[in-house]
Automatic annotation (TrEMBL):
This is PD-(D/E)XK nuclease-like domain-containing protein. Residues 2-155 form the PD-(D/E)XK nuclease-like domain. The lineage of its organism: Eukaryota, Fungi, Dikarya, Ascomycota, Pezizomycotina. It comes from the Eukaryota. InterPro entries: PDDEXK_12.
Length: 161
């Protein structure tokens, strides 16, 4: 991911972070949900004191756990998750926690039509999406992005469209 998101070791607006220890913040945790949700994420990381960073700070102040996401894990508190990557298990629980967190946002924020995610099972990478339908989180079918079982797949899968 560094190769795809950090050309020449430059940190751009979109970055990635390893977050295997990330847990849901207490305000968004469902009792039936496991505590570890994702392994790594693509995130928005605006420059400090930029208008985008100031906007994120303002939204965080209005939320129960003072975090932009549904987790209070380190860098994820002030870096909105763009896409989450999870290995070897369904992404449904993570998506439900994210939707619970979004439900606690002020009503004047724009609606998010769906949440993207990537599930990695062995060498297979699949795109998933969840949306709210009739008040419930629905996880839609996986679409294969590629496989990392070959050298070509290792290079092309992380940057698949």
């Amino acid at each position: 991911m560094d190769w795809a998101l950090r050309p020449n070791d430059y940190y751009g607006l979109v970055d990635n972070t390893y977050c295997i220890g990330a847990q849901e913040a207490k305000a968004y945790n469902a009792k039936e949900s496991p505590s570890n949700m994702v392994d790594f994420c693509m995130i928005i990381r605006p420059p400090l004191r930029s208008p985008e960073a100031d906007c994120i700070d303002e939204v965080c102040k209005m939320r129960p756990e003072v975090t932009i996401n549904h987790t209070d894990h380190d860098v994820l508190c002030k870096s909105p998750i763009v896409v989450s990557f999870e290995t070897k298990r369904s992404g449904a629980d993570h998506e439900k926690a994210t939707w619970r967190g979004l439900a606690k946002c002020p009503n004047d924020l724009p609606a998010i039509p769906f949440l993207p995610g990537v599930i990695i099972n062995g060498h297979g990478w699949s795109f998933v999406a969840s949306a709210i339908k009739d008040g419930r989180s629905v996880l839609y079918s996986e679409v294969e992005l590629g496989k990392t079982s070959t050298g070509f797949g290792i290079i092309t899968t992380p940057v698949a469209p």
